[in-house]
Amino acid sequence: xxxxxxxxxxxxxCELARKKNVIFYYVGYFSQNIVTAMAEAVKLRLEQSxxxxxVRRRLFSSFVEMAQNIIHYSADSLTPPEQDQHELRHGSxxxxxxxxxxxxxxxxxxxxxxxxxxLEVRLAxxxxxxxxxxxxxxxxxxxxxxxxxxxxxxxxxxxxxRDASEPLEFEFQGTEDAGTAMFFLKTTI
Length: 189
Fold this sequence. Notes:
By secondary structure, the chain is an alpha+beta fold. The chain is built from six helices and five strands, in the order αβααββαααββ. The chain has a five-stranded antiparallel beta sheet with strand order 1-2-3-5-4. The longest helix is centred in the middle third of the chain and has 21 residues, at 53-73. The chain is globular and about 50 Å long. The N and C termini lie far apart (39 Å). The model has no long low-confidence stretch (mean pLDDT 90).
């Protein structure tokens, strides 16, 4: 194959993914149907890799929550922002194994600046909580009303933090669009 068609770049990407122990990666538009298909692929990949059952369940749960977050909040959307069903929004998700043999999930998507500021406060608070505090907050959220600014049940980040073995890592970076920031979230299971 001629390198002008991208074979060299593809081969380099595959080699880097192998070296970094990436077991699943997707970048593109997310919808409920796409997440359902990815969830099946992730489930099978984790089973085939011999990942222990409890770890598989926590990875799968966190994967679904992170993908749902992209569907509901990515600022890069092919559907109108006010549309809350059949959304099609851009982002990426990566699952891999770190040098210590722990699984990690990374996701990234653009987010509106006003949402980024509120999210940063929420995640910093969550990051500072103990596991017991996270679990108690999760139980309390199950009994509470859905927050006005939430398109889900309001449990997503609590679920990811509850399933994590390390505090969540996150970052916001500016983009060319002054109205958005790129949101990065990492969890280690």
